[in-house]
Amino acid sequence: TSAKVALPLWFGRIIALVTISLVSDAVTLFITMLVISPSAFFVINMSVLMLLFLIVPVASTGFGIAIAAISMMMNDVYTISNALSAILPIVCGVIAPVSVFPKMMQYVLYVIPVTHVTQASRSIVDGSVNVGVSLLVILIVGVLWAIVGVIIWNVGVAVQQRKGTLTNIGF
Questions:
Q1: What is the rounded distance in angstroms from the CA atom of residue 98 to the CA atom of residue 105?
Q2: Angle subtended at Cα 38 by Cα 32 and Cα 42, rounded to the nearest 5 degrees
Q3: What's residue 97's pLDDT?
Q4: Which sign, positive or negative, has the C-alpha torsion 82, 83, 86, 89?
Q5: With helix as H, strand as E and coil as C, how does the chain read?
Q6: Do the Cβ atoms of 11 and 18 come closer than 8 Å?
Q7: Are 107 and 133 in contact (CB under 8 A)?
Q8: How does pLDDT run across 104-127, given as a tens digit for each residue?
Q9: Cβ(93)–Cβ(138) under 8 Å?
């Protein structure tokens, strides 16, 4: 199929996955808040929380493109994604705050969108006034990762075309 025909198909798949993820995240958040602290519904700024829900897929997509592009050049495309799915929650502030890690590692972790998403989520729960800045940082980091991801993707495609190992990239 041509790229013009396949693009709507891929866009539709992406929208479906993002929608499923957003609904799943919202249900998980609702149930967690209901079980842990029902009073949180009255404290949290829900409009800012919904804005975070819309920004996170955009920012995460950039990081995902970069990881997919790197994975495409490996023998096992699942190695990096499997490792990151185990490591990121631990090091990006979900389980332990980033501040417990050595300074040099903190600088590396602040390059990853998940770190900023975790901090913004905590800021929303805490009622911080700096949430807008956190949301902007998430978008900036996500856009930078998207640029890096597209560059890596194009390099990967060129390398695989040169090697003759590229058979299909979805278009």
A1: 9
A2: 115
A3: 87
A4: negative
A5: CCHHHHHHHHHHHHHHHHHHHHHHHHHHHHHHHHHHCCCHHHHCCHHHHHHHHHHHHHHHHHHHHHHHHHHHCCCCCCHHHHHHHHHHHHHCCCCCCHHHCCHHHHHHHCCCHHHHHHHHHHHHHHCCCCHHHHHHHHHHHHHHHHHHHHHHHHHHHHHHHHHCCCCCCCC
A6: no
A7: no
A8: 999 999 999 989 988 888 888 777
A9: no
Quote the CA–CA distance of 127 and 93 in Å, as a whole number.
18
Q: Token match 């920004």: residue?
A: 55
pLDDT tens track for 128-140 = 777 888 889 999 9
pLDDT tens for each residue of 5-56: 666 777 787 788 878 888 887 888 788 878 877 887 777 888 888 888 888 8
Average pLDDT rounded to a whole number, residues 100-107: 94
Buried b (16+ CB within 10 A) or exposed e, 123-148: bbeeebeebeebbebbbebbebbbeb
